[in-house]
Amino acid sequence: TPARRCPRSRELGLADASPNLEVSGADRSGIRLSGLYVYPIKSCGGTAVEEWEVDERGLRHDRRWMLVDEAGCFVSQREVPRMALIRVRIEPGGLLVDAPDMPSLNVPFRPPDGKLRLARVWDDLVESRTVGDDADRWFSEFLDVGCKLVYLPDESVRPVDPTYGRPGDRVGLADGFPFLLISEASLADLNARLEQPLPMNRFRPNLVVRGCEPFAEDGWKVIRIGPITLRVVKPCARCATTTVDQESAVTGKEPLRTLARFRKVGSKVLFGQNLIHDATGTLRAGASVEILQTR
Q1: Which of 220, 212, 216, 256 is nearest to 238 (CA)?
Q2: Are 1 and 155 in contact (CB under 8 A)?
Q3: Which terminus of the chain has fewer Cβ atoms in its 10 Å neighbourhood, N or C?
Q4: What is the pTM of this model?
Q5: Which of 144, 136, 174, 179 is nearest to 43 (CA)?
Q6: Can you tell me the distance from the alpha carbon of 55 to that of 44, in angstroms, rounded to the nearest whole number?
Q7: What gap in Å lies between CA 50 and CA 31, rounded to an integer?
Q8: In the chain, what's the furthest Cα-to-Cα distance?
């Protein structure tokens, strides 16, 4: 069943303000996929993988589960930084969830008796299913917040915002797009401006690339990683989640304070690029990244 979409205004991005560049053709400049990350439960810990299947919604199991409040709205580290302490491992039969001073929680890939309920991710209402009372109690106890764990079943379709996507483009329970890409060079540039350098996990990318100049990804339009072609559709506007230490859940002012000095467009602070894939297949760390078209 398609998600119900509310109107959403288009945000100006850094790439929108840049002059158009010529189409480059296949670029074999040595850029590689250096990191591949899956985040099964929205706003909880991620898992680094060496290779992973890409399905219609993005990386398999990525953001297929999320926590919602009593009104059905998604819960994230923006409001509950303690979510950073929740670790999620993907096992053959489901998820294994751990947190400090809590027993492990097993979450099956397809809970047998999940009840249908509407859940909200920003402007989208999606048909989700509940996981169960045990999971709800576990997360509510650890976070000290009343919440429920829901998942996105295969039959529930959430289209990408048509301002950026094409008919048939889908996404799971991520904020809006199947993939987030950041280059190691962009993080190094930011860290050179900070008093204390930050790890990549502050930005929760799916794809990390190595071998390009800082912020080169701003100028990419179409890339290919291994067998999969991806469209680079929109810069990522960063939020308070980036200020949460993913190991301690302690919050601060960085990196948003520093990013605002050189990566601000309008009211948005931009870092990383959102991507939509054109095919399914398998991504592997170390794969070459070809720049097929630039802006």
Answers
A1: 256
A2: yes
A3: N
A4: 0.91
A5: 174
A6: 21
A7: 17
A8: 55
Residue for token pair 């492990």 = 104
Strand arrangement, sheet containing 105-108:
87-91, 94-98, 105-108
Residue 190 φ/ψ, nearest 5 degrees: -60, -45
Q: Is the dihedral of CA 40, 46, 51, 54 positive or negative?
A: positive
How would you write the pLDDT of the chain (295 residues) with one tens digit per residue?
544 443 333 333 443 333 333 334 444 669 999 999 999 999 999 999 999 999 999 999 999 999 999 999 999 999 999 999 999 999 999 999 999 999 999 999 988 878 999 999 999 999 999 999 999 999 999 999 999 999 999 999 999 999 999 999 999 999 999 999 999 999 999 999 999 999 999 999 999 999 999 999 999 999 999 999 999 999 999 999 999 999 999 999 999 999 999 999 999 999 999 999 999 999 999 999 999 999 9
Please name which of 126, 241, 211, 214 lies closest in space to residue 172, comparing C-alpha atoms. 126
Residues with Cβ within 8 Å of 256's Cβ and at least 6 positions away in sequence, in order, are 238, 240, 242, 243, 269
Whether the Cβ atoms of residue 35 and residue 51 lie closer than 8 Å to each other: no
Tokens 């302690």 belong to 250
Dig out the tokens for 86 from the structure: 């929740």
Q: How would DSSP label each residue in 31-96?
A: -EEEEEEE-SBTTS--EE-SEEEEETTEETTTT-EEEE-TTSBB--TTT-GGGGG-EEEEETTEEE
**Cα 146-156-115 angle, rounded to 5 deg:** 45
In degrees, rounded to 5, the angle at the alpha carbon of residue 202 between the alpha carbons of residues 165 and 107 is 75
Q: Which two tokens stand for residue 294?
A: 């630039």
